[in-house]
């Protein structure tokens, strides 16, 4: 009797820890944040004393140039860091997939930037991009370009910050691509070689299409990471009020905008509103990605069918 | 059977573990207070307040009280963030917390989070503090949020090596005499730039702007961006526009080295002798010493700030309402901030007192700084602090100040004209005040 109960219910018990923890640290804050976002909730307010304002906070931010500025910065940083990053990672993975001397060492090596702390990477890159003593401005000086104050403009801080992100995440994504590449049977490459296909052509017409599901996965993960970008721009901005992203909010991302509401303005309700706006933004991008995935998967299916016919 | 048994015992262990975990989470409570109550007071600070000897003395006089200082040596930003979180959570803050000047002002309209020290006898202590310092910790309706510890005061640190190169006097009395007003200061800067091309006269304009604003506000209406009713005055108070125009004049004269405070370039600027003067509160001397290192020793000196006294920085001690020992904590705050306590802190860590009695103390008056060509720092900074007139700062002062500073910075970086910068300052300032 006990044994049967055990068989029936203990599986639920085993998976319970995840759902209990998720409920406490994931779901409940999500709901509570939604509630807070509907109030004029100051530091020191409680549910009883906060004033209910409905969607006023949302309306306020949708009309706020500074909020949209942070959205533009985030999207620009996301595009400028993710696109080159994934292309580089693909090329890197393809190279690592070849028969090389010291393969394991090289494969481990590309992961090293990823295990370095954000703070360390940011400090080094901020030095590289330093106005007066930076390596990059020195190199630009050699070809006759005047020193650039990288923190002072939007475009330049985007370049600097996305290079930081690329440095940290390219190797990580390359390893995921590499794992997927190794599941592609070798013999199709052999027959392609016999047919006289160049290695570039093999990469472009065989490897990339067969990696599609992995590419989609990596894109979604990078999307979520990219839209929540915080540490790199914060440390790169430096100075007295780094949360603002510089004197003209050149490099303020949405997450930094959120923290500004909390730590600089003590507006907990508005911070919650920004959190929800960010959540919705990520949701929208995920849905776009999902639709994209579905159409790509069907394209993948027809590609396979064609191959069988041939 | 055996597999089922094993699985069941595993489940039991998992369950037991979960239960212990829950129990552990609940066991952090303090023992119930008894008749001869033995209590612990946590004091949350950043940096070094220099209170070790004072704690010992206080604990000896009050055997039932144990004092624990937390956060010694920590960064101000980390301290502030942690405090904000703990106040929002309603638990975890110390019985006494240190609030930096800018921070206490932003808590003025959140006075319900702190114990009104006026209810614990602090009202009679006004005479123990420089008037503007006492006022900064008091709300518009008279609640006393915090009592002052130290002040930054304001002077002008300058490099004697660069002054010599420019053919300017290097003696501190003669240098102070060069610039009674900011216009004089700008003229000296132009002379300097005529002789020395590869260094700025000033590091950056923002900190100077803040000093000028406090001076002009003290001489004028007695407030900066907000009047005492809380109304925004950024575009109606002449002190703001005058200070902005003076700052622009400094920029137009080409005096700024354009090194943003706290950036790597700024830190490097000390070592590379890239600027000749810097707005210099008492604590800045320590920063210059550490950034410029041994090579800078004897190359710096301190003169009076143009336009009268000033202040940048300094702190307060406050008691969050969430404490269980409001009375005992308030007593300790009074003990630590009284003139004797401030003198002890000055002797321990060199924190400049905010009490006129302590500033008049022989030990403070006699202090000299060897690194700054043996400048009598105690005397210079005491004067800078006492010269400043009280200025009312609204609760939203910090975000508005940041907005104006940033507007000035865009003018300095050349991305905006002076007129556009002013427009942005007013616009962003008004928005930041919401």
Fold blueprint:
The complex is a heterodimer of chains A (310) and B (434).
Chain A: H1 2-36, E1 39-40, E2 51-52, H2 56-62, H3 65-96, H4 103-109, H5 112-115, H6 118-128, H7 135-142, H8 154-181, H9 186-194, H10 199-210, H11 212-227, H12 231-237, H13 254-264, H14 268-309
Antiparallel strand pairs in A: 1-2
Chain B: H1 2-26, E1 39-44, H2 52-61, E2 65-70, H3 76-89, E3 96-100, H4 101-106, H5 131-136, E4 146-151, E5 155-159, H6 160-165, H7 172-178, H8 182-195, E6 200-202, H9 206-219, H10 238-252, H11 264-271, E7 275-280, H12 282-292, E8 300-304, E9 314-318, H13 326-337, H14 339-349, H15 356-359, H16 362-365, H17 377-387, H18 397-413, H19 418-432
Parallel strand pairs in B: 1-2, 1-3, 6-7
Antiparallel strand pairs in B: 3-9, 4-9, 5-7, 5-8
Helix pairs in contact in B: 9-10, 9-18, 18-19
Spatial shape of chain A? globular
Quantity of strands of chain B, as a count: 9
Classify the beta-strand content of chain A into a percent band: under 5%
Neighbour order of strands in the largest sheet of chain A: 1-2
The chain pair with the largest interface is: A-B, 36 and 35 residues
Number of helices of chain A: 14
Looking at the structure, the CATH topology of the largest domain in chain B is D-Maltodextrin-Binding Protein, domain 2
Q: What is the makeup of the main sheet of chain B?
A: 5 strands, mixed
- Quantity of strands of chain A, as a count: 2
Oligomer: heterodimer
The value of Rg of chain B in angstroms is: 25 Å
CATH class of the largest domain in chain B: Alpha Beta
Keywords (chain A): Cell membrane, Membrane, Transmembrane, Transmembrane helix, Transport
Domain ABC transmembrane type-1 (chain A): 71-289
Subcellular location (chain A): Cell membrane
Main location (chain A): membrane
């Amino acid at each position: 009797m006990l044994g049967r109960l055990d068989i029936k219910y203990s599986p639920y018990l085993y998976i319970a820890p995840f759902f209990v923890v998720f409920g406490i640290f994931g779901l409940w804050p999500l709901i509570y944040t939604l509630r807070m976002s509907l109030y004029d909730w100051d530091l020191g307010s409680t549910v009883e004393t906060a004033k209910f304002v409905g969607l006023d906070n949302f309306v306020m931010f949708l009309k706020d140039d500074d909020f949209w500025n942070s959205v533009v910065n985030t999207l620009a940083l996301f595009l400028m860091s993710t696109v080159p990053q994934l292309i580089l990672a693909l090329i890197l993975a393809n190279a690592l997939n070849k028969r090389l001397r010291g393969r394991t060492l090289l494969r481990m090596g590309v992961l090293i930037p990823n295990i370095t702390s954000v703070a360390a990477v940011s400090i080094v890159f901020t030095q590289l991009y330093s106005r007066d003593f930076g390596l990059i401005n020195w190199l630009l000086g050699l070809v006759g370009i005047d020193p650039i104050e990288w923190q002072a403009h939007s475009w330049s801080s985007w370049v600097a910050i996305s290079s930081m992100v690329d440095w940290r995440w390219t190797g990580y994504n390359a390893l995921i691509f590499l794992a997927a590449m190794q599941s592609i049977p070798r013999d199709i490459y052999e027959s392609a070689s016999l047919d006289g296909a160049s290695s570039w052509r093999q990469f472009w017409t065989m490897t990339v299409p067969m990696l599609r599901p992995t590419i989609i996965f990596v894109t979604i993960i990078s999307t979520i990471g990219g839209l929540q970008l915080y540490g790199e721009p914060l440390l790169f901005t430096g100075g007295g009020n780094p949360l603002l992203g510089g004197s003209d909010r050149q490099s303020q991302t949405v997450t930094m905008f959120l923290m500004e509401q909390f730590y600089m303005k003590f507006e907990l309700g508005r911070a919650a509103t920004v959190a929800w706006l960010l959540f919705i933004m990520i949701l929208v991008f995920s849905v776009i990605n999902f639709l994209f995935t579905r159409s790509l998967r069907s394209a993948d299916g027809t590609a396979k069918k064609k191959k069988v016919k041939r | 059977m055996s597999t089922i048994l094993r699985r069941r015992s595993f489940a039991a262990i998992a369950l037991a573990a979960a239960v212990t975990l829950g129990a552990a989470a609940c066991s952090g409570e303090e023992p119930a207070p008894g008749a001869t109550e033995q209590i612990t007071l946590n004091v949350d600070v950043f940096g070094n307040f220099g209170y070790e000897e004072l704690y010992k003395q206080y604990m000896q006089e009050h055997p039932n009280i144990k004092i624990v200082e937390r956060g010694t040596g920590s960064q101000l930003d980390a301290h502030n963030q942690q405090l904000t979180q703990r106040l929002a959570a309603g638990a975890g803050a110390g019985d006494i917390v240190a609030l930096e000047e800018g921070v206490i002002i932003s808590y003025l309209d959140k006075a319900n989070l702190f114990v009104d020290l006026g209810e614990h006898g602090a009202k009679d202590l006004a005479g123990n503090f420089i008037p503007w310092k006492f006022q900064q910790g008091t709300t518009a309706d008279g609640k006393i949020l915090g009592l002052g510890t130290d002040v930054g005061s304001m002077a002008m640190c300058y490099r004697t090596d660069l002054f010599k190169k420019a053919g300017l006097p290097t003696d501190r009395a003669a240098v102070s005499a060069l610039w009674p007003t900011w216009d004089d200061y700008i003229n000296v800067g132009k002379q300097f730039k005529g002789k020395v091309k590869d260094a700025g006269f000033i590091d950056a304009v923002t900190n100077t702007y803040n000093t000028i604003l406090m001076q002009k506000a003290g001489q004028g209406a007695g407030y900066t961006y907000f009047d005492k009713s809380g109304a925004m005055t950024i575009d109606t108070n002449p002190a703001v526009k005058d200070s902005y125009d003076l700052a622009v004049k400094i920029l137009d004269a080409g005096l700024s080295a354009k090194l943003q405070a706290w950036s790597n370039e700024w830190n490097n600027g000390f070592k590379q002798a890239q600027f000749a003067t810097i707005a210099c509160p008492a604590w800045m001397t320590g920063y210059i010493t550490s950034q410029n290192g041994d090579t800078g020793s004897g190359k710096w000196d301190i003169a009076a700030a143009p336009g009268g006294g000033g202040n940048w920085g300094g702190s307060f001690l406050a008691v969050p309402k969430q404490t269980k020992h409001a009375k005992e904590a308030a007593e300790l705050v009074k003990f630590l901030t009284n003139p004797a306590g401030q003198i002890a802190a000055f002797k321990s860590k060199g924190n400049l007192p905010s009490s006129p009695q302590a500033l008049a103390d022989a030990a403070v008056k006699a202090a000299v700084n060897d690194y700054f060509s043996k400048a009598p720092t105690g005397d210079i900074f005491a004067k800078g602090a006492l010269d400043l007139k009280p200025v009312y700062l609204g609760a939203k002062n910090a975000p508005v100040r940041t907005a104006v500073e940033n507007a000035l910075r865009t003018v300095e970086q050349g991305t905006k004209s002076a007129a556009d910068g002013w427009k942005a300052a007013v616009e962003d300032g008004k928005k930041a005040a919401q």
